[in-house]
Fold:
Amino acid sequence: MQVTTTIVEYQKTIEQTSFKNLKIGFVATMGALHQGHVTLIDLAKKECDIVVCSIFINPTQFNNPDDFASYPKTIDKDITLLQQANCDILFVPSVEEVFPKEQKLKTYSLNGLDLLFEGEKRPGHFNGVCNVVHRLFQIIEPQKAYFGKKDFQQLAIIQHMSNQLNLGIEIVGCETARETNGLAKSSRNLLLSEKAKSDAGIIYSSMKEAKSELEKIEIPEIILAAKNKLQKIPNSKIDYVSIAETSMLEPIYKRKEGQKIVMLVAVFVENVRLIDNLMLNE
Ligand code: PAF
Structure:
């Protein structure tokens, strides 16, 4: 694997005869890599000629400075894992490389997709995500880009941005990788104690129960039952539990024929904010 830290270095690398004119699959990350990232790389490997990964903790998507400061950093382990996963090129830029001082951040029009859930709880978060993803797309120039479905709203927003700006990049969503107790794999899990990781399995079981109740009880009751279950996680606080239709992410309270719906959950466990989701009717 070739490791590059500047745009010039990346461009020189991609121009080498062994990489030139090949189909690039791109996996953008903030590091602290885990099996979920490997799933993205594996799919990119299957569908493209080469895989480029980036590791960049994007300051513009954090609305809370403490959250930014405490974001896990495991660069040496990340490099080993990327080598094992057969990543071809790693791009690890500085903040100045991605966001030069003279360049202003863009404001993206996201059709209201950015106003609910994560967008409501973390103002400016999605504009920051769009700025970094758009910028990385311009640098890496991939044909396909892979994102995890764990960040359901992020995936919808990146898909929207890419279509809106006609970027010509295919956005591929990949299934959420889970621990054996169902906890979604996430870089933030590194901040949890072993006990909290085990307790947080309730997040997935509460969503699975919701799915199994879908034909039996009404949406508000399903949400209430999930909240009651989630409240049993020690040292936790629910941020939101909602059921939404999947196109505009509008919360729903009554099901409509043919509507695809998803349960979206955000819970603080030991003060670490965990998000997850489950499609309820597919
Ligand atoms: O999902 C993430 O890790 C980040 O939001 C992303 C897409 C790499 C942008 O910084």
User: Anything to note?
Assistant: The domain at 2-174 is CATH 3.40.50.620 (Rossmann fold). The radius of gyration is 19 Å. Residues 28-30, 58, 61, 129, 132-133, 151, 154 surround pantoate (CB under 6 Å). Strands lie at 2-4, 24-29, 50-55, 89-91, 144-148, 170-174, 236-245, 261-269, 272-279.
